[in-house]
Structures are given as C-alpha cells and as structure tokens.
Amino acid sequence: MPAGISRLRQIAITTKNVAALTAFYRDVVGFTHLFDAGPNLSFLDVGGVRLMISQPSAPEVDHPPSLLYYLVADIDAAHAALKARGAKEERPPGLTARMPDHELWTSFFRDPDGNLFALMGEKR
Q: Which domains does the chain have, with CATH numbers?
C-alpha cells in the first residue's frame, strides 16, 4: 500500500455528550465498548476498527462526521434489531446496486446527535 498504510484502524465522531453517544453505539447498535480515556473520550470496537467518540477539540472539527456504512450479514435482521432497540430509522432496507455476484442493499438510521449512518448488506 502507499506510504506503508496497511488498513483503517480508527474513525472519530465528535459530540457534545460523549456518554450518551457511547451508550447509543454500545447499547442500541451493539458495538463492544473497549475503554474510556477520561470523561470525554470513549472507544468502541467495530470489527477490528476503533470508533472514537469525543468532544470536539477545536471549532474546525465541530461538525457532523462523514457518512459511515457498517457491513452486516443480514441487513433485514440487523435493521429490525436496531429499530426495535429504538434507533431512529431514516430509510428501510432497499436495493442500491446489482453487482455481478450479489445485490448491494442499504438502510439508514440517525444517532442521537442526528448523524446519519448506514447498514450495508450483500444479498446473493
């Protein structure tokens, strides 16, 4: 890989309420909580990639994150589980693209801060 980069290790989301957003991604979405570093920094595991939740460190980083897509084995079941746990549905599962060997399906939710995130599933 260029510059010796081997893989994505961590993604950061900023929030005004670290505890509340951590609780959402841990309890509603189901990510494994790894550790906290003080009251304003929390880390969760997303299939080997860390999700860092923190307060903005400067005004220029106080904005919504990029849209994150989380791969799931069964998009219909994962979507139903998040909805049942109180996640705010933005769009139910739907066909996004037909690939040569599968269909790509996505669905969308909002976290308590209003950040949009997606589930992505491959149907064969």
A: 1-63 (3.10.180.10), 64-124 (3.10.180.10)
Q: Which residues, 6+ apart, have CB-to-CB distance to 28 below 8 Å?
A: 82, 85, 86, 87
Query: Can you give the pLDDT at residue 1?
Result: 55
- What are the counts of helices (DSSP H) followed by strands (DSSP E) for the chain? 2, 8
Contact 65, 14 (CB under 8 A): yes
Q: What is the pLDDT of residues 54-81, one digit of tens each?
A: 999 898 888 888 899 999 999 999 999 9
Query: In the numeric block, which tokens belong to residue 40?
Result: 């304003």
**Dihedral over alpha carbons 83, 32, 20, 87 (to 10 degrees):** -10
pLDDT tens digit string along 9-52?
Answer: 999 999 999 999 999 999 999 999 999 998 999 999 999 999 99
User: Phi then psi for 19, rounded to 5 degrees?
Assistant: -60, -45
